[in-house]
Amino acid sequence: MREEPVPLDRYAPDEAPEVRRVLELLEIAWERGRHTLAPAPVSAAQLRVMYIIERDPGINLRTLGRHLDAAAPSVSRLCDRLQAAGFVGRTPRPDDRREMLLELTEAGAAHLRDVRRRREQALYQAMKRMTPDAREALSSGLSAFCEAAGEAALPAESPQRRETV
Questions:
Q1: Is the pLDDT assigned to residue 151 strictly greater than 80?
Q2: What is the pLDDT of residues 68-97, one digit of tens each?
Q3: Which of 57, 66, 87, 91 might form a disulfide with 108, Cβ 3.0–4.6 angstroms?
Q4: Nearest-5° angle of CA 98, CA 79, CA 34?
Q5: Cα torsion at 140, 51, 31, 8 (round to 10°)?
Q6: In which region does residue 43 sit, left (phi positive, over 0), alpha (psi from -120 to 50) or beta (all else)?
Q7: What is the spatial distance between Cα 64 and Cα 50, in angstroms, rounded to a whole number?
Q8: pTM of structure
């Protein structure tokens, strides 16, 4: 179960401006990235589905729905569109043909590689304008944020990280 959001007026007085500032910076970063690095021809939600399937090949729709916190019909429609685009394949589970298993197609994997390459180039360009101390602070801060938000940051030597660097 998700925690209810805390209204900003309930934060300690010194926390509210910091929360607002971080939120503003995240929104700016998100908007810049969204406009310059759109993952066309898929939506952000479809891209998230592709990342999950890449991490967990053979995932079923029910488990994918739990990852997305989304209803089965919505998850099915997302996968229908990805399958129509040639990015996701569905195969029946061998011991229960009613259950469909999801995997990225070669075109889907290639699309993710291209999205990562473009995003990495843009991030590299921005980070190269930062001082080494600022880059380290960014990395440490994002890792701590992901941990606090309940998402483990990628370890330094994970397969996904090695592939994207």
A1: no
A2: 999 989 999 999 999 999 999 999 988 888
A3: 87
A4: 160
A5: -60
A6: beta
A7: 10
A8: 0.68
